[in-house]
Design brief:
OB fold (Dihydrolipoamide Acetyltransferase, E2P); alpha+beta; 405 residues
């Protein structure tokens, strides 16, 4: 599939080749034919490249001028992270009880903090909406609500993450399984192993025998399918409740992840409903996209039609053949020798970004130096310009054949 990236020329390695690297990278990545490099390009220049990826590597098919290198002299930005970063699941628990604080508490003392920066549950009361029970040997009660509040404040259109299914699962487990399941929700099997190591290290320091790793891991492996299914159902339920407020990429991620989960009947019904919702939304966006292009062409706004065509709602969305043909034809007919140079340049910029650029056939080029230079630089992306300028576009380099033993 054709992609566009920015590359930086690093050296003229031969009469007919340049070495290049991705803009901002350190090491050279490959070579490109000199015939594809715009006139006047020099070492260190950043160019826009159209590439094709294959098992043999990256193949550059065309180049055009761009801006300065992304990695050169760029000011560093600082991102401020707000919130604790701790995921609240509606149940508070501890794999093993922490050592109690000895001695009286002085004014100004604060409860000790855990590894994640939050105050330990052993020195504070239960949070609103959750009850600690695993650390005292009792059963943890799920939170009363079916969903947790979204992280942060003042963020509209962010659906609350449901915890209904994980709370239902936790409520059905015995005390031996509860803490293990909660660790699985937090970080899967690696989180369980880490908790075992920490608990056994504390046991050794206190002269107590360590817990049986094999027994705990056996329980954990048996709970993995249940926790994975409950976590997916919560994500699916959140997407269903949010409806159109769910971002398309989030909806697609939930649908795609359903293929890696062992679904029960309820889960299969949820996956089917979400898949149908995804298909409807994608089709609606595609139809609206094509309609806006057609409307712009009907109103003789070719530049607007090209710009809309360059912003497809989905990377896999393709223009219908009849719309693509009409768009390319009208763009080519608008680019003549008599066209105002500024309008011609606007059309060229829009054509370069449009998916129909290779089939656009400009009728002529205004006789101005700046316009001719721009047309020459864009000849690799719009092949019809090469014939107007008397240039020959070299064929792409042959694909390398990998001989496997």
């Amino acid at each position: 599939m054709v992609q566009r990236i920015e590359i930086q020329l690093t050296a003229h390695v031969a009469d007919d080749q340049w070495s290049w690297r991705a803009a901002g990278a350190r090491e050279p990545r490959g070579v490109v034919a000199n015939a594809l490099v715009p006139d006047g390009a020099k070492e260190g220049d950043v160019l826009k490249a159209e590439i094709e990826r294959s098992l043999e590597g990256i193949e550059i098919t065309s180049l055009m001028a761009s801006g300065p290198a992304k990695g050169a002299e760029q000011p560093k930005a600082t991102i401020e992270l707000l919130g604790s970063g701790r995921q609240q699941t509606g149940v508070s628990w501890s794999l093993a009880p922490k050592a109690k604080r000895s001695g009286p508490r002085r004014d100004g003392d604060r409860p000790p903090r855990g590894r994640d920066g939050e105050r330990s549950n052993s020195t504070r009361g239960p949070d609103r909406g959750e009850r600690s029970g695993a650390s005292s040997g009792g059963r943890a009660r799920p939170s009363s609500g079916g969903s947790a509040r979204p992280e942060g404040r003042g963020r509209p259109h962010v659906p609350a993450q449901s915890t209904e299914h994980r709370n239902a699962l936790l409520a059905s487990l015995d005390s031996a399984q509860l803490a293990i399941a909660e660790q699985l929700f937090r970080g899967g099997i690696p989180a369980v192993r880490q908790a075992i190591d920490e608990q056994n290290a504390q046991a050794r320091s206190e002269g107590r025998p360590p817990a049986s790793t094999e027994a705990i891991m056996g329980i954990a492996e048996g709970l993995v399918p249940l926790t994975t299914l409950a976590a997916w159902k919560d994500r699916a339920h959140t997407a269903q409740v949010a409806g159109k407020e769910t971002r398309l990429r989030d909806l697609r991620a939930v649908v795609a992840s359903s293929r890696s989960v062992s679904l029960d009947e309820e889960g299969k019904a949820m996956a089917k409903a979400l898949r149908e919702s995804l298909d409807q939304r994608v089709k609606s966006l595609s139809d609206d996209w094509v309609a806006r292009i057609t409307t712009a062409l009907d109103e003789h706004k070719v530049v607007d039609a090209l710009k809309v065509a360059s912003r497809s709602p989905e990377h896999s969305t393709r223009l219908p053949a009849e719309v693509a043909t009409r768009l390319a034809q009208e763009a080519g007919e608008a680019m003549t020798k008599e066209t105002d140079p500024r309008l011609w340049m606007s059309l060229l910029d829009a054509v370069i970004d449009a998916p129909v650029r290779r089939i656009v056939k400009p009728q002529g080029i205004p006789p101005e130096a700046d316009v001719e230079i721009a047309a020459r630089n864009a000849a690799g992306l719009v092949p019809a310009l090469a014939s107007l300028l008397g240039l020959r576009i070299p064929p792409p380099p042959p694909r390398r054949v990998v001989h496997r033993p």
